[in-house]
Sequence to fold (106 residues):
Amino acid sequence: MALSDSISAYDDCFELFERAETDGKGARTLLATWSEAHMLRMRMNQARVLERRQSARAFEKTDPRHGKSAFDKWKVTIRESAEKEGYWLYVELWTVNQITVEGLSE
Fold:
């Protein structure tokens, strides 16, 4: 199934991204099947692709918003629910657990 190229077809996806952003840490939604969760994850990623295209047309190359989505900092993952009742689609901030950071010239 091909995904729509119309950004207006993804209002539900942007609402979920905005809910995660409002929370600050993220958000999740429960879906009945892995297929439904997988399709929503694909739609969420397509929504960002379309927003990047739109911002590339709207902003000059020198503008930091050029070619970017406001939601690029969020990762979208699928996890089976602990009760095996469905699948959670998580929208969380990208984070890396760094033990230490050192400069290479040291």
In short: Strands lie at 26-31, 74-80, 87-93. Helices lie at 11-23, 34-58. The longest strand covers residues 74-80. The longest helix spans residues 34-58.
